[in-house]
Specification:
- By secondary structure, this protein is α+β, with helices and mostly antiparallel strands.
- Helices cover 17% and strands 44% of the residues.
- The protein has helices at residues 21-27, 83-89, 148-155, 191-202; strands at residues 5-9, 15-20, 30-42, 45-53, 64-65, 68-71, 99-110, 113-125, 140-147, 162-170, 173-181.
- The strands form two sheets. Strands 3, 4, 5, 6, 7, 8, 9, 10 and 11 form a nine-stranded mixed beta sheet that branches. Strands 1-2 form a two-stranded antiparallel sheet.
- The protein is globular.
């Protein structure tokens, strides 16, 4: 995976070449990623779905993250990003079923990792049950949901913890759980990123 070839850009999104994924994060090259957030509605309540990253992941193991996300390879278009949904969650979803939420550029430094990303962000209105997800064990170790209202208050600093419900795999066994988690259980995206996502998603809810 570290040898994957990615297109790289300057901060104004002018393409400047190709680099390995490892070097992209080592030298902080700007690159493109695909994000897809699943939301669902149960009775009158909207939920947002979060994956728990595998403990095998080099970056941010065991933390809660975007429903499905990944890097766009050098020979891929944004539309090709739907493969991440299939690979990580086991679901074939057509690009046309996704709602584009826009692009968000952000920069995060975590240890030796410098992550400068242009994120192409999409929404999927899901009617799937949590049981429908077939997770790629090397990438994802669980799937949970949270009320979108709680998610908003959490990232606006009005709640210290948020209630999540779903399942995780522990030693190969699926375990259902319900608990409260704090920010230390989430991938440390910028607060501005989460606020951007929340506003874009809220505008699409019916």
């Amino acid at each position: 995976m570290e040898e994957e070839q990615l297109k790289i850009f300057d901060m104004n999104k002018n393409e400047i070449g190709i680099a390995t994924r490892d070097n992209v994060h080592k030298f902080g090259y700007w690159h493109e990623v695909f994000h897809c957030w699943f939301v669902s509605k149960e009775e009158d309540t909207h939920y947002i779905h979060l994956q728990r990253r595998s403990k095998e992941k080099k970056d941010y193991p065991n933390l809660l993250d975007i429903t499905a996300a990944g890097h766009l390879l050098a020979d891929e278009t944004v539309q090709d990003g739907v493969r991440e949904i299939k690979e990580e969650l086991g679901m074939d979803i057509a690009y046309e079923k996704l709602v584009p939420l826009g692009e968000f550029s952000y920069s995060v430094k975590h240890g030796n990792l410098i992550d400068n990303e242009f994120a192409n962000i999409f929404l999927y209105n899901s009617e799937h049950h949590l049981n429908d997800f077939i997770l790629q064990a090397e990438e994802v170790s669980g799937m949970v949901k949270a009320r979108i209202k709680d998610f908003e208050q959490f990232w606006l600093g009005k709640k210290e913890k948020i209630k999540i419900t779903g399942f995780v795999f522990t030693k190969g066994e699926k375990e259902w759980m319900e608990k409260y988690v704090g920010r230390d259980q989430f991938v440390p995206h910028q607060d501005s990123f989460y606020r951007f996502i929340i506003e874009k998603i809220k505008a699409q809810l019916t």
